[in-house]
Amino acid sequence: MFGRYHRERSQTIPRPILTSPVLITRPKEDAKRLALALEALGPDVRCILAPVMEIVALPFECADRNFDHLVLTSRHAVSAAAPFRGMPTYCVGKATREAAMAQGHDVRDVFSNADELVANLSGHGVGHVLHLRGRHTRGEIAKRLSLAGLETYSCVVYEQNPRQWSAPERQAIQAEMSLIVPLYSPRSASLTAKLLEDFRGDLTLIGLSQACLDAWDGPHPKISLCVDHPDGEAMQHAIASQLRGSPLERGGHRV
Fold this sequence. Notes:
The chain is an alpha/beta fold. Helices cover 27% and strands 27% of the residues. It has 8 helices and 12 strands. The strands form 3 sheets. It has a 6-stranded mixed sheet. A 4-stranded parallel sheet has the order 1-12-11-10, sandwiched between helices. Strands 2-3 form a two-stranded parallel sheet. Helix 1 (28-39) links the parallel strand 2 (22-24) and strand 3.
């Protein structure tokens, strides 16, 4: 069954009843943050943390020029932004904003996704923008801002290396009869699909975008949902909506 998850921006996250475990495949620190938020919804929420990528900081050199704006699209880039502290900073995602502010950056605005950032910064006229990012990204922020008149230099400051699951992680995952699997990027969706190729239980996929669901080439899901607004808050609401029941509650069995 395929569908699209919709929500009102002001609604509260529903309280779960019984649930399938949530398989969180985000990088370690991101996975912990998400697990804490979900487990706060109720005592029956179970999360399995099994990252499919590791974040590795990279040495970098930026062009020798003066920048007018700093763009951070992930909190993983914040540590590399220390030399540019004091520059007007624009972030994607609340976690990125919080990390940047904690490091003393002059955060002027925060956006839910790359499209919102580009649309808003495009009205700033001329200037030079520095975008610190990971090696694997989508959205073509530098290209789109440059076309809008803001010359943008994109600098890779961290790598997202694929990670294999340990034997205990595999055993814990394979023991489940159903899983809720949030997919935050096409690359993580592809990596997770490969690691779950032998999973025989029911899968509920929740994509941050349709591109995430399109990248899935693993076992056919029982349920597949795409959030209506690509941000962390929408994902938490969508995950919570699926915590209200599971194939086990409805009498489902392993196939």
